[in-house]
């Protein structure tokens, strides 16, 4: 614990130092950094005012600098500063991209250059809205100037400037200066020589329209041009056409490939009376992958200072949040072991008042409503006071002081069984004020569950969440892409909601393990829904015999399954397994499927298609109090669902003495001991149907498993479960009050 606190303290102060450094540097950039505008005008003035020898002078041409620090700034610039070059020209792609951070970084590198410089407008200068920055910082995208009697012309090959306009302007320039000027030099980011373009077309680097290229080549053939420079590839290449030299030079710092003339370099141009002598100058060594990665990382950090004021404020806020989080982690005292100084029984001197929020409840028949109803009845026997906030279903069975119905906004389903309660109903706030709960217990991580969480936080009382449902298996009900919901949203929703609660109740160890894997840190109680083991004693023999005459008058062995008729319950698998078992067994048997749902019509068609009318009956919905009679009618319980967090109906069946055959899955694995109180198989039709036949054909084995099933179910008696849940409420309430006292 001390070691963890020390590490958190170090992390906190490191973040604080980074935050102060970022803020200080940003202030420096705002108030002290140079304002950059029209740099080309300044650089041309420096070139023209410099006393250069007219008979011979030199300049450097470089391409593909790409904000290089290791090559351009640290190797090429020192070499140029020591050379006899009068100025430097970049033929495009001097930047990694057109962002403010890249322009500022390039300016910082060029400040170390002792000679004037000019930049050609290329694709990297244009990208990321860089054209605005280029114009503000440097000047127009195409321009020209003279040195002595030599003419220097810069073109825009990105398409930012209309190409037709540039051709007209270039023709005027060449018409005016090709005869009067001693030499004409043209600079562009993309080459126009066809031999060069053929090389680049393989890499998909060409943007100029063929029509423009053709007309530009016609102009170059018509007028006298000394040299045309381009730099769109990291290589050096020279071609001649007539009296004009066409050069590609792109080794200024970007990635190079190949050998020899593909290394880092610049072109050294010596201008004299007779023409221009152009030779490559190879400088420096190639960067390793590690050095290049470090340089990229540095540019990411550097870019933080040029992302604009709004984004900068967001970055500062993010650092503040981290600082606050670390501070809370440092200052909060952690107690991971149970605090035995707290007397959980004397936290409140009156009966514990528990308010529950649920998105569905009786008379809707389902695992969650039945589970909640049993817990409510068990807690009432413990002396707790309960108030359950649930949707209104229009015609409730009877008035209930415990359950308060929330008006529904809408309903759907074949019988309107799905209700969406109004979370903004004034009756919720009124009920909270009148009931004054000590504890909030929510049963869903959304809708009314979110309202319950809000109420608990507002009142400063513990919120407990029961993880009933594997949401990822219900993607087919949600109007968003299934994979997105199954693989991301469902798990994220459960994790975020559970971590906002003081405690989580899960029905099985499998569910507990799942929450730990997700990263849930709330207190967890493993308690399944209790079963009423005395329920079979209250069912008369006449009731069971009446059902037998109705469903098995021919003396067939009865199997039963209780399940909502929906896709996630995997009932189609069970039908296919029954079909296989029928083909290999002469002994008569019949499966009764108790429950209703949206897949009923589809399942009825499947039963007819497989000719299972004499072996499978869809009983429909049965009231919870009548369910036990169906268990007592059967010889075994069959189940195939893989979406359960617990096997509640399996425990009910065991309490009635039924061995179980089920598909092994979470929830099932915790309550079913293979070969002891039933069988759990892989989702394999042959294996599942073989286990079914073993129970069907071996009454002695079935009887032995039946006795062990009853013994197992007694461990989950509802009275025991509700006692443990009430104790969990008390412990969390005590911890909450202790925390409030310490603050």
Keyphrases for this structure?
743 residues, alpha/beta, Purple Acid Phosphatase, chain A, domain 2, Rossmann fold, 7-stranded parallel β-sheet, 26 strands, 44% helix, 17% strand
List the helices and strands and how they pair.
Elements: H1 2-32, H2 39-49, E1 56-62, H3 69-82, E2 88-90, H4 100-110, E3 117-119, H5 123-126, H6 130-137, E4 143-147, E5 150-154, H7 163-177, E6 184-187, H8 194-201, H9 210-222, E7 227-230, E8 236-241, E9 244-249, E10 265-272, E11 275-282, H10 289-303, H11 309-331, E12 353-357, H12 367-381, E13 385-391, E14 403-406, E15 408-412, E16 418-421, H13 426-435, E17 439-442, H14 448-459, E18 463-466, H15 482-499, E19 503-506, H16 509-518, E20 523-526, H17 541-551, E21 557-562, H18 571-584, E22 589-594, H19 600-609, E23 616-620, H20 627-633, E24 636-639, H21 648-655, E25 660-663, H22 668-671, E26 678-681, H23 685-697, H24 699-714, H25 718-742
Parallel strand pairs: 1-2, 2-3, 5-6, 6-7, 7-9, 12-13, 12-17, 13-14, 17-18, 18-19, 19-20, 21-22, 21-24, 22-23, 24-25, 25-26
Antiparallel strand pairs: 1-10, 4-5, 8-9, 10-11, 15-16
């Amino acid at each position: 614990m001390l070691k963890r606190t020390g590490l958190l303290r170090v992390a906190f102060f490191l973040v604080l130092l980074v935050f102060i450094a970022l803020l200080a540097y940003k202030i420096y950039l705002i108030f002290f950094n140079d304002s950059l505008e029209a740099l080309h005008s300044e650089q041309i003035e420096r070139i023209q005012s410099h006393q250069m020898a007219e008979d011979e002078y030199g300049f450097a041409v470089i391409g593909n600098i790409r904000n290089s620090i290791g090559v351009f700034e640290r190797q090429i610039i020192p070499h140029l500063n020591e050379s006899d070059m009068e100025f430097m020209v970049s033929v495009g792609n001097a930047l990694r991209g057109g962002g403010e951070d890249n322009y500022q970084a390039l300016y910082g590198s060029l400040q170390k250059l002792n000679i004037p410089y000019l930049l050609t407008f290329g694709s990297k200068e244009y990208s990321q809205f860089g054209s605005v920055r280029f114009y503000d910082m440097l000047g127009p995208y195409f321009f020209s100037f003279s040195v002595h009697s030599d003419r220097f012309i810069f073109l825009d090959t990105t398409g930012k400037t209309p190409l037709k306009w540039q051709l007209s302007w270039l023709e005027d320039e060449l018409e005016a200066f090709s005869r009067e000027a001693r030499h004409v030099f043209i600079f562009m980011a993309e080459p126009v020589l066809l031999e060069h373009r053929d090389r680049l077309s393989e890499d998909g680097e060409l943007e100029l329209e063929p029509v423009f290229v053709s007309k530009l080549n016609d102009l170059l053939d018509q007028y006298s041009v000394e040299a045309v420079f381009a730099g769109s590839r990291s290589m050096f290449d020279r071609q001649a056409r007539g009296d004009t030299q066409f050069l590609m030079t792109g080794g200024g710092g970007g990635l190079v490939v190949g050998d020899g003339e593909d290394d880092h370099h610049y072109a050294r141009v010596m201008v004299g009376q007779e023409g221009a002598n152009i030779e490559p100058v190879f400088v420096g060594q190639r960067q390793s992958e590690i050095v290049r990665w470090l340089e990229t990382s540095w540019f990411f950090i550097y870019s933080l200072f040029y992302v604009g004021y709004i984004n900068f404020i967001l970055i500062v806020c993010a650092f503040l949040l981290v600082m606050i989080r670390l501070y809370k982690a440092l200052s909060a005292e952690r107690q991971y072991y149970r605090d035995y100084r707290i007397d959980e029984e004397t936290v409140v001197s009156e009966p514990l008042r528990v308010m529950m929020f649920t998105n569905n409840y009786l008379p809707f028949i389902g695992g969650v409503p039945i589970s909640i109803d049993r817990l409510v009845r068990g807690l009432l026997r413990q002396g707790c006071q309960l108030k359950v906030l649930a949707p209104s279903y229009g015609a409730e069975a009877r008035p209930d002081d415990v359950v308060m119905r929330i008006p529904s906004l809408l309903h759907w389903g074949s019988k309107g069984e799905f209700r969406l309660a109004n979370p903004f109903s004034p009756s919720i706030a009124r009920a909270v004020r009148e009931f004054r709960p000590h504890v909030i217990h929510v049963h869903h991580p959304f809708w009314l569950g979110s309202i319950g969480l809000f109420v608990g936080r507002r009142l400063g009382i513990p919120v407990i969440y029961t993880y009933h449902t594997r949401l990822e298996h219900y993607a087919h009900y949600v109007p968003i892409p299934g994979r997105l919901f199954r693989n991301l949203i469902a798990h994220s929703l459960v994790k975020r909601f559970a971590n906002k609660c003081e405690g989580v109740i899960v029905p099985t160890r499998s569910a507990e393990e799942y929450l730990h894997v997700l990263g849930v840190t709330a207190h967890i109680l493993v308690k399944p829904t209790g079963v009423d083991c005395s329920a079979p004693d209250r069912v008369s023999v006449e009731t069971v015999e009446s059902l037998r005459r109705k469903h098995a008058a021919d003396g067939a062995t009865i199997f039963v399954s209780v399940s909502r008729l929906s896709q996630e319950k995997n009932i189609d698998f069970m039908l296919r397994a029954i079909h296989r078992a029928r083909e290999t067994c002469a002994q008569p048997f019949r499966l009764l499927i108790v429950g209703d749902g949206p897949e009923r019509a589809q399942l009825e068609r499947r039963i007819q298609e497989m000719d299972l009318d004499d072996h499978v009956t869809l009983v429909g919905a049965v009231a919870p109090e009548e369910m036990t009679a169906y268990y007592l009618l059967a010889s075994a319980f069959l189940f195939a669902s893989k979406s359960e967090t617990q096997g509640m109906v399996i425990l009910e069946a065991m309490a009635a003495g039924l061995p179980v055959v089920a598909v092994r899955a979470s929830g099932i694995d915790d309550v079913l001991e293979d070969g002891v109180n039933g069988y759990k198989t892989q989702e394999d039709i042959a294996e599942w149907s073989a286990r079914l036949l073993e129970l069907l054909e071996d009454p002695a084995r079935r009887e032995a498993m039946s006795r062990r099933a009853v013994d197992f179910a007694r461990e989950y008696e509802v009275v025991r479960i509700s006692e443990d849940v009430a104790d969990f409420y008390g412990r969390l309430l005590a911890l909450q009050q202790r925390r409030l006292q310490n603050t």
